[in-house]
């Protein structure tokens, strides 16, 4: 007779652990992020679309990695066509939008430049895209957790906090890589400019030196004709 209560207790613990794992997986799917790097030709405008749900959050961060001036125009429009944010001639920016149902459009505009193309990096972070309508239904199938003093909600909160911090760490590392790429492109561009102007200055100095030597020698030449 004592075997049955023990078996039920073990079964309840197993159901609790399995249910907690499913809840953790469902919580992990609430936030998504993605990044993209592309080349924006001179005189062109590129637009992207992101489908969002109501009461979700859209965060976009962009940087100009390479190109003359390291600047671009940026716009975000709502599904109704309303302009939400606009940046002009900026090298980077971060914007967050509390969304509604529909497709959001964000555009990068390089029409003000007729010569230089731009390499642009941007990252999208989508929060609360897939929220379970009944997140507490799993509690109906968990029994006997009071006996073992298991606080599944605390475990789930801890997992969510760890997941959020790991996601933030990944986001920061991605942004730092973008900054590093932009700084490297800027340094290489400055290195090429320094080398080019160094060669030009060296050529000019050699030319000036040759002209000075010729002028000095011409001052001491005796151009008078000697008659014999």
UniProtKB/TrEMBL annotation:
<dbReference type="GO" id="GO:0033116">
    <property type="term" value="C:endoplasmic reticulum-Golgi intermediate compartment membrane"/>
</dbReference>
<keyword id="KW-0732">Signal</keyword>
<comment type="similarity">
    <text>Belongs to the EMP24/GP25L family.</text>
</comment>
<dbReference type="GO" id="GO:0005789">
    <property type="term" value="C:endoplasmic reticulum membrane"/>
</dbReference>
<keyword id="KW-0256">Endoplasmic reticulum</keyword>
<keyword id="KW-0812">Transmembrane</keyword>
<keyword id="KW-0472">Membrane</keyword>
<dbReference type="InterPro" id="IPR009038">
    <property type="entry name" value="GOLD_dom"/>
</dbReference>
<keyword id="KW-1133">Transmembrane helix</keyword>
<protein>
    <submittedName>
        <fullName>Transmembrane p24 trafficking protein 5</fullName>
    </submittedName>
</protein>
<feature type="domain" description="GOLD">
    <location>
        <begin position="45"/>
        <end position="126"/>
    </location>
</feature>
<dbReference type="Pfam" id="PF01105">
    <property type="entry name" value="EMP24_GP25L"/>
</dbReference>
<dbReference type="InterPro" id="IPR015720">
    <property type="entry name" value="Emp24-like"/>
</dbReference>
<feature type="signal peptide">
    <location>
        <begin position="1"/>
        <end position="26"/>
    </location>
</feature>
<dbReference type="GO" id="GO:0005794">
    <property type="term" value="C:Golgi apparatus"/>
</dbReference>
<dbReference type="InterPro" id="IPR036598">
    <property type="entry name" value="GOLD_dom_sf"/>
</dbReference>
<feature type="transmembrane region" description="Helical">
    <location>
        <begin position="196"/>
        <end position="216"/>
    </location>
</feature>
């Amino acid at each position: 007779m004592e075997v049955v209560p023990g078996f039920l207790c073990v079964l309840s613990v197993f159901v609790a652990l399995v249910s907690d794992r499913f809840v953790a997986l469902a919580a992990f799917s609430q936030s998504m992020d993605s990044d993209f790097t592309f080349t924006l030709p001179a005189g062109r405008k590129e637009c992207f679309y992101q489908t969002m749900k109501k009461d979700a959050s859209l965060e976009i961060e962009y940087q100009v990695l390479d190109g003359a001036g390291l600047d671009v125009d940026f716009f975000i429009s709502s599904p109704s066509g309303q302009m939400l944010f606009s940046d002009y001639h900026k090298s980077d920016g971060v914007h967050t939008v509390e969304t509604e149902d529909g497709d959001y459009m964000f555009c990068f505009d390089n029409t003000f430049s007729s010569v230089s193309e731009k390499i642009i990096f941007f990252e999208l972070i989508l929060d609360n895209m897939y929220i379970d309508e009944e997140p507490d239904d799993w509690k109906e199938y968990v029994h006997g957790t009071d006996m073992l003093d298991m606080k599944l909600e605390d475990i789930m909160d801890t997992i969510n906090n760890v997941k959020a911090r790991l996601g933030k760490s990944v986001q920061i590392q991605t942004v730092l890589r973008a900054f590093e790429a932009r700084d490297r492109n800027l340094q290489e561009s400055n290195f090429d400019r320094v080398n080019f102007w160094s060669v030009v200055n060296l050529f000019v100095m050699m030319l000036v030196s040759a002209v000075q030597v010729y002028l000095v020698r011409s001052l001491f030449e005796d151009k008078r004709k000697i008659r014999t």
